[in-house]
Amino acid sequence: DKKITQKLANDFNMGQGEASTIAVAMKEKCIIATDNKQGRKVSLINNLPLVGSPEITVNLYNNKKITKEKAIGSLKKLKEIGWFHPLVIDKAIEDIK
Fold first, then answer.
1. How many angstroms separate the first and last alpha carbons of the chain?
2. Count of CB atoms within 10 A of residue 16's CB?
3. How far apart are CA 25 and CA 45, in angstroms?
4. Is the pLDDT of residue 55 over 80?
């Protein structure tokens, strides 16, 4: 929905791609996978199910899609980049160990 997409983009100062993804999720009631701060905020405000890279990484490991080493390495890289609070990453690493 172009109208909702534009409203989300304007109201929450986000790009069209992020806004259109959230607009679809609002209509279809599906899960949002994003690390974008504004996208996460809009998802929480609208009670949309939400996951980010740490949760996806742990899930991939738990489902044997990636190795323990790959999972922990990826999470350490996320910590290094600094998108997430260090405790979020530490918790995800603990979940893998």
1. 43
2. 13
3. 13
4. yes
